[in-house]
């Protein structure tokens, strides 16, 4: 059963097309992840979904309610942890949690869960610290905590672990999984490939406002051209030259620039191709700083559909 339906969704900011006719559905009880670089349109979609923004064109339905015509019904079902935490700078952590519980009309069970969530997210010792005294990672954990405490039917997290250390990321991921297991539908936006691969049931890849792919992780990975992947680490500025040199090799299916120093070659016979690749590049004076075989990832799916990695090469 689909809990969310988006139909030909468009959002413009002046001449900028933030969302360009996005159509998708999200199933009840799944963890759906929007993956894409900064500016791809992820946050715009989420802000429309939770009624903060209105679409320029198209429709979005949450459990059958139109986000434009029935915003109150949508807000009762949706809770969001914003990309930029909404902090009351002069209030303490405890005061902000108490205010959240009161304004959402939460009861005794949620108050007990608040105690548990504050402990798990390592905010318990910060109860009396004011918002302006919190670090960026602490603010982010507080923003996430508010959604975890409420346990909405549809829980939205916009880059929930940005600015959080590795240990904290794993704690947040575990709690998001626990929220899903409790029955919430979870929608998450991230530009972290590992985060998407660790959490998502299905992934929608956004690029410059366009939904370029949407499916389960195993299915998306099968969309990468058949063959093995050789990743090359090159000197700065050498990726374009290396790409041109390798694309004429019959054993190479495709080359894609992953960053200003990383080039990926999709090849027919990986280990046999490595010596050929090295010989081709070294003979033409291209400095190769590293070379390895890798498994296909969501980054490769993004490369396949857009021709570039999440970190766009300079120049």
Automatic annotation (TrEMBL):
All copies of domain ABC transporter, residue ranges? 4-233
User: Which GO MF term does the entry hold, naming one?
Assistant: ATP binding
Could you tell me which InterPro entries the record lists for this protein? AAA+_ATPase (IPR003593), ABC_transporter-like_ATP-bd (IPR003439), ABC_transporter-like_CS (IPR017871), ABC_transporter_ATP-binding (IPR050763), P-loop_NTPase (IPR027417)
Keywords from the UniProt entry? ATP-binding, Nucleotide-binding, Transport
Query: Quick check: keyword Nucleotide-binding in the entry?
Result: yes
- Extract the PANTHER family matched here: ABC TRANSPORTER ATP-BINDING PROTEIN (PTHR42711), ABC TRANSPORTER ATP-BINDING PROTEIN NATA (PTHR42711:SF5)
So what family is this one in?
Answer: Belongs to the ABC transporter superfamily.
- What's this protein's name? ABC transport system protein
């Amino acid at each position: 059963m689909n809990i969310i339906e988006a139909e030909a969704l468009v959002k413009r900011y002046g001449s900028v097309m933030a969302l360009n006719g996005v159509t998708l559905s999200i199933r009840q009880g799944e963890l759906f992840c929007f993956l894409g670089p900064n500016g791809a349109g992820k946050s715009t979609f989420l802000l429309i979904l939770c009624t903060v923004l209105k679409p320029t064109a198209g429709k979005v339905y949450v459990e059958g309610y139109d986000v434009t015509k029935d915003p109150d019904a949508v807000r009762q079902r949706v809770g969001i942890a914003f990309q930029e935490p909404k902090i009351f700078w002069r209030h303490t952590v405890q005061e902000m949690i108490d205010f959240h519980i009161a304004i959402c009309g939460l009861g005794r069970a949620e108050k007990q869960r608040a105690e548990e969530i504050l402990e798990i997210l390592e905010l318990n010792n910060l109860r009396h610290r004011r918002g302006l005294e919190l670090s960026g990672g602490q603010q982010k954990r507080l923003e996430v905590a508010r959604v975890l405490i409420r346990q909405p039917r549809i829980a939205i997290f916009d880059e929930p672990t940005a600015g959080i250390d590795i240990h904290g990321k794993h704690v947040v991921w575990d709690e998001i999984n626990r929220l899903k297991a409790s029955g919430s539908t979870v929608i998450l936006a991230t530009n972290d490939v590992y985060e998407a691969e660790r959490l998502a049931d299905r992934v929608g890849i956004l690029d410059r406002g366009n939904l370029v792919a949407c499916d389960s992780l195993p299915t998306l990975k099968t969309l990468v051209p058949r063959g093995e992947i050789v990743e090359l680490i090159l000197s700065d500025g050498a990726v374009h030259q290396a790409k041109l040199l390798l694309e004429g090799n019959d054993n190479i299916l495709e080359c894609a620039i992953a960053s200003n120093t990383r080039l990926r070659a999709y090849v027919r016979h990986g280990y046999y191709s490595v010596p050929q690749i090295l010989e081709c590049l070294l003979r033409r004076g291209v400095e190769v700083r590293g070379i390895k075989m890798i498994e296909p990832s969501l980054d490769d799916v993004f490369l396949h559909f857009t021709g570039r990695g999440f970190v766009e090469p300079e120049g």
